[in-house]
Write a structure and sequence with these properties.
Blueprint: E1 8-9, E2 16-18, E3 22-30, E4 36-42, E5 49-54, E6 59-65, E7 68-74, E8 79-81, E9 85-87, E10 90-98, E11 104-112, E12 118-126, E13 138-141, E14 144-151, E15 156-163, E16 170-176, E17 188-194, E18 197-204, E19 207-214, E20 220-225, E21 230-238, E22 243-251, E23 257-266, E24 273-277, E25 282-284, E26 290-292, E27 295-302, E28 308-309, E29 314-320, E30 326-330, E31 332-338, E32 341-347, E33 355-362
Parallel strand pairs: 1-28
Antiparallel strand pairs: 2-30, 3-33, 4-5, 5-6, 6-7, 8-10, 9-10, 10-11, 11-12, 13-14, 14-15, 15-16, 17-18, 18-19, 19-20, 21-22, 22-23, 23-24, 25-27, 26-27, 27-29, 29-30, 31-32, 32-33
């Protein structure tokens, strides 16, 4: 379950900078009383937001359009969600239903905010402690929803495309499964879309490539081999100018773990430029590694030593990849940039049970 839920929060930090300049901050809204706000995303070009909330009993999704808030979807009992993806009025997320035997059902839900229709293009039972389902990374481009799925029977990992309103999804790209202990034999580990491109980390044996697909034609336009010391890519973030943000693991010559690193590479570069190496006890939610123009963002949580969690254990990071200046946003568990502004979900400095959605100018 999402790592920051159902926890006791006791301390809140202030925001700080280390090189990058952040301007005026505006609190756009705060969570409802007794409800924990866990994810926020803009779902259309007007700046309307969709929010994922939880309390002790349920998860539900709200939308705020022109100042009017309404509940769009309530998850069934014994279910949870952990991410929202949205664009052009379409919201997509994975719903996880939990069974008594600890198996789970993974369900892709797609909601058209114009008419409230809910679609289910993918549903599969996950047997406890198996890895036969990928339930990370969704891309919404126009009215098309892209997601990753693997078939051990067919021995392939696929990127599927679902157009809202269609009866069935279609296959967008296929990569044969491969023997690789780091990826549990899955051959696509992550993806991101930007402009008319979809970028995925694809794996053959122990070689990792960045594969760039044309969204209009479905053709693979480029396949870029990453350095041999890259063991696995957890996350890719595609920038419109051709830079690609990476969250990746490096290994030594014997294939043993060296470090988890966040950096970037240009489509024509030979080497990755590292920006941040995780220290022991630091954890990055790989869906939070995002790139908007030159601004790379991600979020870190520190490992817990007891059942009490402090907001000091959460912070967002922002890097300008052109000058490598950075800023640290304390208390933030979701950070992303959009059109020259930085957005954060931050624990309030006066009330650790309150979460604020904050907009900050990037100078």
């Amino acid at each position: 379950m999402k790592r920051f839920l159902c926890l006791i929060l006791i301390t809140v930090l202030l925001c700080s900078c280390s090189g990058a300049r952040l301007g005026e901050k505006t609190v756009l809204f705060k969570n409802e009383a007794e409800k924990l706000l866990t994810h926020t995303v803009f779902y259309n070009d007007k700046g309307d937001t969709a929010c994922l909330y939880t309390d002790a009993d349920e998860y539900y999704i709200t939308i705020d359009s022109d100042g009017e808030k309404k509940v769009l979807y309530t998850l069934p009992e014994n279910s949870y969600a952990y991410e929202l993806y949205a664009n052009n009025g379409i919201i997509a997320f994975y719903e996880r239903q939990i069974y008594e035997n600890r198996d789970e059902r993974c369900i892709l839900k797609v909601i058209d905010t114009e008419n409230g229709e809910v679609y289910t293009p993918f549903s599969k039972v996950i047997v406890f402690e198996t890895y036969d389902v990928q339930s990370r990374f969704i891309e919404v481009v126009g009215r098309d929803v892209y997601y990753i799925t693997s078939s051990f029977a067919l021995e392939e990992t696929r990127i599927m495309k679902y157009t809202v309103g269609d009866e069935e999804p279609t296959e967008f790209a296929t990569v044969p499964m491969t023997e690789n202990e780091f990826t549990f034999n899955h051959s696509i580990t992550c993806m991101d879309a930007g402009g008319d491109k979809l970028v995925a980390a694809t794996v053959t044996g122990y070689d990792t490539h960045i594969s760039i697909y044309n969204l209009k034609t479905g053709e693979a336009e480029k396949k870029k081999l990453l350095p041999i010391n890259v063991g696995v890519v957890y996350s890719v973030a595609y920038g419109k100018d051709g830079n690609i943000g990476l969250f990746y693991q490096t290994v030594d010559k014997e294939g043993k773990f060296e470090a988890d690193i966040i950096g970037y590479i240009g489509v024509n570069d030979e080497e990755i430029t590292p920006l941040y190496t995780l220290s022991e006890g630091e954890y990055v939610n790989r869906e939070t590694v995002l790139l908007d123009g030159d601004i790379l963002t991600f979020n870190i949580q520190l490992a817990q030593t007891d059942d009490i969690v402090s907001a000091e254990d959460f912070y967002g990071m922002m890097f300008n990849i052109k000058n490598e200046k950075s800023a640290r946003i304390s208390g933030s568990f979701l950070t992303f940039a959009k059109d020259g502004k930085l957005y954060d979900l931050v624990f309030d400095k006066n009330d650790a049970k309150t979460v604020s959605f904050i907009e900050t100018e990037i100078k």
